[in-house]
Amino acid sequence: MKSLEIFSGAGGLAEGLKLSGFEHVGLLEFNRDACNSLRVNFPESEIFEQDIRSFDYKKLGNVDLIGGGPPCQPFSLGGKAKGQNDQRDMFPFAINGIRELSPKAFLFENVKGLLRQSFASYFNYIILQLKYPELTQGKTESWQNHLDRLEKTHKIGNYVGLKYNVVFRLINAANYGVPQKRERVIIVGVRDDLGIEWSFPKETHSDERLLWDKFITGEYWDRNEISLSKREKPDSNLKKKINKLKSKFGFFPPDSLPWVTVREAIYGLPEPFSKQNFHKDHIFRSGARAYPGHTGSYIDEPSKTIKAGGHGVPGGENMIRFENGDVRYFTILEAKRIQTFPDEYIITGSWTEGMRQLGNAVPVRLSKLIGSELKRKLSCQPQQKANISHAI
What we know:
It is a single chain. This protein is an alpha/beta fold and 392 residues long. Helices cover 31% and strands 15% of the residues. α4 (120-131) crosses α5 (143-156). The protein is globular.
């Protein structure tokens, strides 16, 4: 199945979709360094280094899937949160691609902030445009008036034309085996004429099982060969959680796999300053320090969200915190593992630029899981042609 990747970044979503069986006919990205990373990792695909606002979709021919992560800055909890008033809001141009190519499905990712109450009307506007992409905004029409038309159309139900069944969910990547507590909104749309019921893959990992393995059976420490003296000692709040866990599950463990921790993600890697380290992406960077609100990622938990930052890498966030409280910056190789990229995946540019690319990426494992389910459902359907005429 053929796919087009827009807002490709370093290629996390693209890599996962590739591993799930999609063939990328093109990857569209504006940033030069990210495009350099894409070129070396996707030599079989055409890389379009350009602004999406001037991209000609029709030159691509048939595409089964459009995927991508529209810029998150307009909706980020850590940004200025201008939303639809931010010039970096690229959702309208993603919707243009759906309108032009009529793919069988689309897959978009964005930050949790997109769901905040202040964006509720605009988020509904995004979803309804994705659902009815041919019901376009007039040249002099405000987005609020366009939303009114879309809502009326949705309520009346007399729309005939290109239509998608759209489902979204706030997903924590850690619940799918990614060693990172990364919450993102995933939006999936499947063309209505295909008659496909979409649902997200079932979560496979949990915090409850990690707590169980740590503090009830001790299996976590045993399998990671951690001595008694280095094992985490639960405080009073954690002891309350453990007691609740015992009451909830009794003698049997939670029916899930444990969250994957930083320790397990970077297993087998020497310290970056070690003489045994020969990996070019595993270079020690000095200057890390902890301060209130930026204490790093504890080694025996999934990482905090790897972030790109508004102006380079946030000073205290992309760090590993060891049992004794010491901190150091993640290396590029460690950050790749936390984002579940293969070790051999190439991230070009400086450490700061590389971390920016990785911070913007979709975890490869999560992308592959969702992509595999999409491909399975789409493959079961006969080829159908979208009805592209409409009457409101």
